[in-house]
Write a structure and sequence with these properties.
Layout (H helix, E strand, L loop, with lengths): L1 H18 L14 H8 L2 H12 L8 E2 L4 H10 L2 E7 L11 E8 L10 H21 L4 E3 L28 H13 L2 E10 L5 E9 L5 E6 L25 E3 L2 E5 L8 H9 L4 E6 L3 H4 L3 H12 L2 E6 L1 E2 L2 E6 L8 E3 L3 E2 L3 E3 L15 E8 L1 H10 L1 H4 L2 H11 L12 H6 L1
Helix pairs in contact: 2-3, 4-5, 5-6
The chain binds N-(aminocarbonyl)-beta-alanine.
Length: 419
């Protein structure tokens, strides 16, 4: 009994300390994430059960935390960003050697106000994420992905065209050159989602992910397939749906692809990357609490399960306020920000397990070590690809695309009689 009351006392102490953060914008009643809130609020044995259901089991066990080198955690303390690391296990195989890779996700807020000159804003963001990339390098990360349009505020809510000045070409672009040097330094593949200016095609603007190989080479690019037309996400004012299909990039560390933000609501988009053999899909995003937070822990995880690959989901952090108020034709009063970008970046695995998420309000680096052999092991176990009826779906889709398509509905004749 004495032991139990000591625990309660300790727990309430922890609660008090955490609650000092209650007023922190974006915190969950003072906590950085739902996981942290539950861990601090529940009895350990209850939390263990909750965690089992919330995060699933990896190879039948709770996901293991990964120890990072002191050099990496020291950078995170000095630069004040959340850093978390986990290890997804995979069973050993007789024929194939393990294919273990470390993968990193970076989430961040902007660095200086949106009223300051744009080149200063871009430089300040580059300066801000440099220590996070250094921490990833110090942690032996092999593949790193940044958030959507990481090199600028997410200004597309405003519809003001001056923000196009942030756009840059893939080859020779300032941020690409910055990351190419870091990719080479750390022998790291870097996925860099930017606002692209396609000079050769009449200065067209795209929402693009640049894939930088671990030799600092540009491997290629992928342009966002699905453009949102929801809430303040007025992105269609700036760029069109991408024209690069569903490429998979075979890097030194595995086959990767990028499903940019709003594409995560489209199961066939996820599927197409899987059909091309992706083993890790990144979902660099920019989304706000009020709009999408209940979807966030579900969609990517579901895609990882349905397509037997790993997914790394990244969302930016904080509130970005713009100089001029705007509306979005939804009857809401004019406002100057999108709302709170809730961070919460995390990894999902093909076996239905996932990591807790990064902070809801602080910059962060999420690292996972994963053996890519798990993808095939899950395919062998569950057979989702084998049992899919692609020919049936293809036929249905080809009917649907015809102008004279009529939905295949069989109506109860009794219903018609009654009508
Ligand atoms: N950046 C972007 O596509 N956001 C759309 C909102 C959402 O998908 O949650």
């Amino acid at each position: 009994m004495a032991e139990l009351s000591k625990k309660v006392e300790e727990r309430s102490c922890t609660g008090e300390i955490e609650n000092k953060n209650v007023s922190k914008p974006g915190s969950l009643h003072g906590y950085e994430s739902l996981y942290q809130l539950l861990e601090s609020s529940l009895k350990p044995e209850v939390f263990q059960e909750v965690s089992r259901l919330l995060l699933g089991l990896n190879c039948g066990k709770p996901l293991e935390r990964l120890n990072l080198p002191v050099s990496a955690t020291a950078i995170s303390s000095k630069s004040d960003f959340d850093i978390q690391a986990y290890r997804f296990h995979t069973d050993e195989e007789h024929e194939r050697k393990p294919r273990v890779v470390r993968v990193g996700l970076i989430q961040n807020s902007i660095a200086i106000p949106t009223t300051l000159p744009m080149p200063h804003q871009k430089n300040a963001i580059m300066e801000k994420i440099l220590p996070m990339i250094d921490a990833a390098g110090a942690s032996g990360v092999n593949i790193l992905c940044l958030q959507e349009a990481w090199m600028m505020p997410f200004a597309f809510c405003t519809r003001e065209k001056s923000w196009c000045q942030f756009a840059e070409p893939v080859d020779g672009g300032e941020t690409t050159k910055f990351l190419q040097a870091l990719a080479l330094k750390y022998n790291m593949v870097i996925v860099s989602p930017i606002l692209e200016r396609d000079i050769d095609h009449g200065e067209t603007i795209w929402n693009t992910a640049v894939i930088i190989g671990n030799q600092g080479n540009i491997m290629g690019k992928h342009r966002k397939n699905h453009i949102p037309r929801v809430g303040d996400f007025n992105e269609s004012t700036y760029y069109m749906e991408g024209n690069t299909g569903h490429p998979v990039f075979e890097t030194s560390f595995g086959k990767i692809a990028v499903n940019i933000c709003y594409g995560r609501h489209h199961p066939l988009n996820w599927l197409a990357f899987g059909l091309n053999g992706a083993e890790i899909i990144f979902n660099p995003s920019a989304t706000v609490g009020e709009l999408s937070e209940p979807m966030w822990p579900i969609e990517a995880r579901n895609a990882a399960i349905a397509n037997s690959y790993f997914v790394g989901s990244i969302n930016r952090v904080g509130i970005e306020t713009f100089p001029n108020p705007f509306t979005s034709g939804d009857g809401k009063p004019q406002h100057s920000d999108f709302g709170h970008f809730y961070g919460s970046s995390y990894f999902s695995a093909p076996d239905a397990s996932c990591t807790p998420s990064l902070s809801r309000y602080r910059d962060g680096l999420m690292i996972s070590e994963m053996d890519l052999n798990l993808c095939r092991q899950v395919k062998d176990k569950w057979g989702f690809q084998m049992t899919a009826r692609y020919e049936m779906y293809a036929e249905e889709l080809s009917h649907y695309l015809k102008p004279d398509f009529k939905p295949h509905v069989i109506t109860d004749p009794l219903l018609q009689k009654r009508a």
